[in-house]
Amino acid sequence: MTSETRREHRLLMIAALASIFTALLLIAAKTVAWLMTGSVSLLASLVDSVMDSLASLINFFAIRYSLVPADEEHRFGHGKAEALAGLGQAIFIAGSSIFLIQQSAFKLMDPQPIEQNAVGVAVMVFSIALTFGLLLIQKFVVRETGSTAIEADSLHYLSDLSVNAGIILVLVVSQYGFLWLDGAMGLVIALFILYSAWSIAGESIQLLLDREIPGDVRDVIGAIVAEHSLALGFHDLRTRQSGRTQFIQLHVDMDQNLSLREAHDLAERIEQGIRQAYPAADVIIHQDPVAVGPSVPVAGPGNGDF
After folding, report:
1. Where in the sequence is the domain holding 39, given as residue range(s)?
2. Could you give the CA distance from residue 15 to residue 127 in angstroms, rounded to a whole number?
3. Domain end marker among 208, 239, 255
4. Tens digit of pLDDT at every position of the chain (306 positions)
5. What is the CATH number of the domain that holds 60?
6. Does residue 295 fall inside a structural domain?
7. Spatial contact of 147 and 246, defined as CB atoms under 8 Å apart
8. Does residue 240 lie within any of the structural domains?
């Protein structure tokens, strides 16, 4: 294992532990605030934090498992553990949203005054500050490692900032007689959590189904192959992602008169170029011999060639 790989593993563990620690602190603070205020909006935020802690815990163990090197039974590594973790998170989150919808409906039908509003506002401000600090850590780790699990966790915490700001507004405005706002905000948060669960589940399922890597991968690889005059084209490009590892396979057309050494060296140079563009990629290049002559087309249309 290289020093760079060890550094990335260490960063992933730091981000996962920071997420768990943040969620536990928020659960403690919001529990006190909810008991003192009776606000269903705060209850919704509390349940959201409980789900965050479960999701972060799942993420922690999934990331640890995904970092285990490939073995005889898992030749492609253990990266899909992150996608399975995402699917588990989605199930937990969806369950919490159904509970919140029920509680919010009760609050809308029988609105009650919120007590100790100042305590609730203080806890929400504390939550925003703590969440913002965690986001800074997560964004740095995602930039350095490209982890899909940390990125998904980061997006969820980013949405929490706007939710917490909305709860502060409810706690302030409810003092002026708008008691229905508490139940309404709880319902909005519950629906938002349900939408988040749907998004996380969809992304996880696509990763498990080996969806193509999103983005302009074909254009990038085409430009890399075009840099080599001995490469006559490429086709049958296939990509997928498992955890942090991106698997890229393609066929490169080469003059059939090249020696085995020349063809191998050309494939090596193309592979190095792809790895520079996608550092976490596992690249496989198949070398296709092509008869070069005036009657033989070099690059067939519709195959991704240039």
Report:
1. 3-208
2. 18
3. 208
4. 567 677 877 888 888 889 889 889 989 988 988 888 877 778 877 877 887 787 778 777 777 777 777 777 777 777 777 777 777 777 777 776 777 677 678 767 777 666 677 888 888 899 889 999 999 998 898 888 767 667 767 766 776 776 777 778 777 887 777 777 777 877 887 787 788 778 778 878 887 888 888 778 889 999 999 999 999 999 999 998 876 678 999 999 999 999 999 999 999 999 999 999 988 788 999 999 998 755 444 444 444 554
5. 1.20.1510.10
6. no
7. no
8. yes
